[in-house]
Amino acid sequence: MSQSKNSPFRIAVMLSGRGSNFAALREHIVRENLPIEIVLVLSDQPEAAGLARAKGWGLNTAVVRRLPKERSNAEFNVDLARAVARAKPDLVVLAGFMRILTTEFISEFRGRAINIHPSLLPAFRGLHAQRQAIEAGVKLSGCTVHVALEELDAGPILAQAEVPVLADDTEESLAARILKEEHRILPAVVRDIAEGKIRINVDANGDVSVQFPKEEK
Ligand code: GRF
After folding, report:
1. How far apart are CA 57 and CA 22, in angstroms?
2. How far, in Å, from the CA of 4 to the mean position of ligand 1?
3. Which tens digits make up the pLDDT trace of 92-101?
4. Ligand 1, atom 5, residue with closest C-alpha
5. Is the Cβ–Cβ distance between 122 and 111 less than 8 Å?
């Protein structure tokens, strides 16, 4: 999936909220002058702060709403897939996208969509991962970048970072400590994929596997 000689590696970002991971990713691309182009920032929330940031930076944006309620999640996912496919991304980056992605979306981008999650997967999937970590009494938590598949927070792991969970941590203080690491590992993974240092393979059965050529001797 590494970029061809002269054309930049194309990424689409999907988000639902403040977009700090998206901002960190863009900042990394700009600072390092990487041949990576953010071809779309898509949100299901028209008011998302991340979307406003994207517009401020002059990026191509789109809103695909879940509404009206009568619409099935499958139909919503078809619309999402269409909107993202139009931008022809090499990679889809889920950066705080808070909707369940079904096979209607995933099958279109199998092996080409990654997600950031605020726990050390496979622990604490789903919502409120930081609260789950505190309630479980673990001493260590962190964040994970993984391939996005139909099963929530469950695809092959691409990178993880650990942080301590302190005795007096609240959900907010732990979330802030984890977020700093998210802002480091998500851009690093996107860059590694663009540079071919992480390879995501999809076989004829649709099974996804990951290779880290830089680690191979
Ligand atoms: C992050 O904690 C991310 O791991 C989770 O949602 C949050 C998004 O934060 N999936 P932001 O919108 O990137 O600031």
Report:
1. 12
2. 30
3. 999 999 999 9
4. 96
5. no
